[in-house]
Design goal:
It is a single chain. A five-stranded antiparallel sheet has the order 4-3-13-12-11, with helices on both faces. A two-stranded antiparallel ribbon has the order 1-2. Helix 2 packs antiparallel against helix 4 and helix 4 crosses helix 8. It is globular. It is of the alpha+beta class and 282 residues long. Strand 3 and strand 4 form a beta hairpin.
């Protein structure tokens, strides 16, 4: 197996979920080319396979929604009902964000809103959940930041629940912190189920219209062993991808920040091959 050379102990600590002092990983000579501005690949054995500016603080776009989902799952029951408001719908439309096509007045379970949040990356769903489980968005963002501190995400700050540019670019994080957050989130079975679903359909009822939400993570259904996790994009953050896969009895988690759209998925596949000792071309 080809393993990155480590400069310092922080990345080993990250891989086992223990915070430590900042450090960087130096990619091995045979590592695949990674054009993303920041990157990290770790696995559940504590091995760091690849690192590139993984401790640099940058906006992470809709990867913010991973923390949103995590906080909601700790606050709410999946069967609880949330009413979507006109404010939720306007918020997403006004900011030009991705939406789940929610309508004012419809009532959906937390479970369905998590699919709306994570598959099409709905800012309308993020607004509805944050507003409900703060209660109020400022209180919810405070919960996100409190959770980040307790997790040991030392280089992460959230300013909203969706990663949109207002206010302050949605905050900042690092590839290292996002990998650690993914490890925590994937321990929750409901989170793992949601982010691993390619399509989620909600049948029409008296409480809401029908919805069909498709996952923006193109690794699902095409890359062996993929279990999730989340895509993201803003102009400032570039194209981002947080991904995880089960390979050879290990869970491999990777982060690509500041990349291009299609390239991030191809790069993730090469990094997964590299991390599991398979032949990598190019």
């Amino acid at each position: 197996m080809r393993i990155a050379v480590l400069a310092g102990s922080a990345l080993v600590a990250l891989a086992v979920g223990v915070p430590a002092a900042p450090a960087v990983a130096v990619p091995a000579a045979d590592a695949p080319a990674v054009a993303a501005k920041q990157a990290l690949v770790i696995d559940s054995t504590g091995t760091v396979h690849f690192g590139k500016r993984e401790t640099a603080r940058v906006p992470v776009a809709s990867l913010v929604k991973v923390m949103t989902a995590y906080v909601v799952l700790r606050e709410a029951k999946l069967t609880e009902i949330v009413t979507v408001t006109a404010q939720d719908v306007r918020y997403a439309a006004r900011g030009g964000a991705a939406t789940a096509g929610l309508r004012a007045g419809e009532r959906l379970t937390v479970r369905d809103l998590l699919y709306a949040l994570m598959l099409p990356s709905g800012a309308d769903a993020a607004n509805a959940l944050a507003r409900t489980y703060g209660p109020g968005k400022p209180a919810f963002v405070a919960k996100m930041n409190g959770t980040a501190r307790r997790m040991g995400l030392r280089d992460t700050l959230y300013t909203n629940a969706d990663g949109m540019p207002t206010p302050r670019d949605g905050g900042y994080s690092t590839a290292a912190d996002q990998a650690l957050l993914a490890r925590y989130a994937l321990e929750i079975p409901a989170f793992r189920t949601v982010v691993g679903r390619e399509t989620h359909r909600v049948a029409k009822t008296a409480l809401h219209p029908a919805h069909t939400w498709r996952n923006t993570n193109k690794l699902l259904g095409r890359t062996p062993g993929i279990v999730g996790v989340k895509t993201g994009y803003t102009r400032k953050a570039g194209y981002c991808l947080l991904f995880a896969a089960q390979r050879d009895g290990r869970e491999v988690i990777g982060v690509l920040l500041g990349d291009r759209d299609e390239r991030r998925f191809a790069t993730a596949e090469r990094l997964l091959e590299y991390a599991t000792g398979e032949v990598v071309l190019g």
